[in-house]
Amino acid sequence: MRKFLAIIVCRLIKFIGGLVGKGTSLPGKFALKLCPDVLRRIELPKTVVAVTGSNGKTSTVEMIASVLQAAGKTVAYNAEGSNQIEGVTTMILSSCTLSGKMKQDVLLIESDERYAKLTFRWFHPTYYVITNLYRDQLTRNGHPEWVFDAIAESIHDDTTLLLNADDPMVSLFGRGRDKVLWFGLDHSATDTDSFSGAYNDGLYCPVCGKPMVYDYYHFNHVGSYRCTACGFARHGTDFTVTGIDLDESRITVNGENEIRLAFRSIYNIYNILSAYAVCTLVGVPEAETARRMSNYILKNGRYVEFTLGSHKGTFLISKHENSISYDMSLKYALAGNKPCSFVIIVDAVSRKYFTSDTSWLWDIDFGQLASASVKNIYLCGKYCNDLAMRFSFTGIPAEKIKVFEDIDAACAELRSSGDEQLFAVTCFSDKEKFMSNVTVK
Amino acid sequence: MEKKLLHLYDDVMNLYGEYANVAVLARYLRDLGFQVQVETLSLYETKDISGYDFYYMGSGTERKQKLAMTQLMQYREALAAACDEGKTMLFTGNSFELLGRTVTDAAGNTYEALGLADFTTVESKRRITGDCIMSFDGFPEPLVGFINKCSRTCGVKTPLFQTEMGFGNEAERGAEGFRKNNCLGTHLTGPILVKNPAMLRYVAGLLGAEHPEQVRYDFMEKGYETTVSELTKRMEAMK
Question: How much is the ipTM here?
Answer without folding.
Answer: 0.97
